Amino acid sequence: MTAEVTVETSTAVAPVRGPRGLVWAMLRVHQWALWFWVLLVAVGAGVLLWAYGPGSDAAWTEYRNLHCDTNDPSLGCDAPGPAYSMYDTAVGVGAGLLNLTPLLAAAWAGAALIGRELESGTAQLAWTQSVSPVRWLAAKLAVPAALLVSGTLVLTLLHRLLWSTDAPLRLAASSREWFEGNTFVANGTLATAYALLGLAVGVLAGLLQRRTLPALGTAVVGLLLLRQAIGSLRPHLWPVETLTHKGDYPTYTGMVLDEGALTSTGARVPDPLCAEDDAKCLAADDIVGFYRDHHPSSHFWPLQLAETGIVLAVAALAVLIAFQLLKRRTGAAV
């Protein structure tokens, strides 16, 4: 007796595997921007790690070989050699990339992320499918924000690692103060906050212009104006410390905001520019001492966090306006 076995072949279509959904579709559409960001972070991290290791070692070796360590370390050498110049350039590149990121984020968000999709009709097509405008905009904000935060945090931590170890080298070469523009931003939470502001401004510009090139220009100009305005507030975000001294200006280490002469009544007046130890000149103007208003290095975090709060508040306002603008234009579709 022969048993007959029948093998049935299933014709059912296997389910599609792999990432799906709005987030995956956006990453696939903007994969070149994603790879550019990964490359940018990798370059910045590599440059800062080189400066932390071989770069600083070479700069110190050169410093000692030139017998600069026999001078007053607060003065350093008059002409740093090529090793220190290369090291300082590497540090500047790392900090510069962190300061450039907000502009890149604003330009890309305004042009490619929002403006191009509205101009070509891709966004409107997505809204007629299963994606609502609010979900579409939320994804456009959330995914790039997560990538920007993770990348800028990596570079900021590496910059702070370098900054915490190269203080003697900076002192010897008299370079890079903590309050200088790029250094101040790259050393704390501001790099990430400004990157998020750039994204928010770019998205809002894209929704306003709805065309690629006008959105790009509006986003970049708008961000530059905001950075200039917020940056001008920086020295005034925390109370200054005042130093006074008789006969000459007091020494200081920090960001100087104001300085001048003091009269016997305590009034602040412009420096009469008398010659050193010219008591007659000082007495004629009733000058009894000099003052300086400044922020010491201990004010770094108060200033940093105060400005970060302002930047994030402006970014949140831009996002809110963007959602309201989208709601007004799409109506019940939201």
Structure overview:
By secondary structure, the protein is an alpha+beta fold. It has helices at residues 22-29, 31-65, 82-120, 122-128, 133-165, 167-173, 181-186, 190-209, 212-233, 279-284, 300-330; strands at 241-245, 254-263, 268-269, 287-296. The protein is flat and about 85 Å long. The model is unreliable at 1-19 (pLDDT under 50).
SSE string, helices as H and strands as E = HHHHHHHHHEEEHEH
Order of strands in the sheet with the most strands?
A: 1-4-2-3
Specify the structural class. alpha+beta
The number of helical elements comes to: 11
Distance N terminus to C terminus? 70 Å
Poorly predicted spans: 1-19
- Radius of gyration over C-alpha positions, nearest whole angstrom: 28 Å
In total, how many beta strands?
4
Biggest β-sheet description:
4 strands, antiparallel
Strand content bin: 5-15%
The average pLDDT is: 85
Helix content: 55-70%
What is the general shape? Answer: flat
What key attributes describe this structure?
4 strands, alpha+beta, 64% helix, 334 residues
Overview in brief:
This protein is α+β, with helices and mostly antiparallel strands. It has helices at residues 22-29, 31-65, 82-120, 122-128, 133-165, 167-173, 181-186, 190-209, 212-233, 279-284, 300-330; strands at 241-245, 254-263, 268-269, 287-296.
